[in-house]
């Protein structure tokens, strides 16, 4: 209970920045079995575990830490980890733990939080090596649910429905399942066979998967409603926000999701646009969140001449993960703070050659503690750029089949649901980014889990 006094927090080893920028493999090494046990034994087993409370999935963190720490019981730890989490080896890799479980760890005040994310990954991977697998129901419930989309919320919903014996049919418009886990988050954060492994387990558990299938085009939504007991919408949020500046749609500008998806399709050797080739170019990314970090680090790996992040607030207000920010710095990314874009500069052929920026300052804090951004008059300056990537967040898109089938949207442009994940159309549910707006993978996983539980209740299962 007091091992934290003699055992220091350690981070998993990282591949050298000089080597890792040459490929898209994950940069973190797996903790050794001894390190897992030692690091887990630092947990003080709080009576009121803040790590558990802060996790959107409310994972049983103290319990699996105790299992793998004091007892070195990987089987029990694996079972506990997978009980509340549809894919712990994924959340362990992509969650911003410093803002969630580790951020609320009691040891954060001077001793260093438990390395929860790294332990979570190591428990899963060591369990897989041992032959452990997630469990699903063998007895069928005689009900079926169609799932539109195959991202985190959909994978989560499918997992908990299959555990209850419900038949699941999933439809994905891309060539591979996984949504943003497959096509949006780069391989240096999560290698794609990790995602494919989870999908494969769902298929082996009985899920039918249809890829390259666009609902509303290849199959009508009404057909899904009529042939299943319920439908879950997990179509994500892929409508990229722009800066609303002059020339922002010129050749050489691109949204973050299009940039990341095109690179991943190239890595898969799938058909891709190839519209933006970063090799030998000056690349500028507008934004400071996790998606911006993904674009910056991807541009480095694409062989860009220079990679610069332009962010309108200061370093301490950047919303992205501190870990990813540090990784980007190590890989040679340049950060410029307190600047905002004014317009894109083009040459006579209509190609991007630069971007006019303006300096900003932070206002005084208002009564609610927030600061707004103010532009400094006469502070214009130019940044050379061949490629400008907008990483300013995402909004839910609105496929035509939603309105055609009476599924209402809310004032934020997301699918409207009640407090039980039910949409305005009977038997149709929604969760994840298409319902809440762009958020974390773990939030989408929590939505899928909760929506599945509500579907089961409504089906009297």
Describe what this molecule looks like in 3D:
By secondary structure, the chain is of the alpha/beta class. The protein is built from 17 helices and 16 strands. The protein has a 5-stranded parallel sheet with strand order 3-2-1-4-16, with helices on both faces. Strand 10 and strand 11 (352-362) form a beta hairpin. The chain is globular and about 65 Å long. The two termini are 41 Å apart. The mean pLDDT is 96.
Compute the gyration radius: what is it?
23 Å
Oligomer type = single chain
Shape: globular
The termini sit apart by 41 Å
Mean pLDDT: 96
Proportion of β residues?
A: 15-25%
pLDDT < 50 runs, ≥5 residues: none
Total number of beta strands = 16
Short overview:
By secondary structure, this protein is α/β, with parallel strands linked by helices. It is built from 17 helices and 16 strands.
Characteristics:
461 residues; 34% helix; 5-stranded parallel sheet
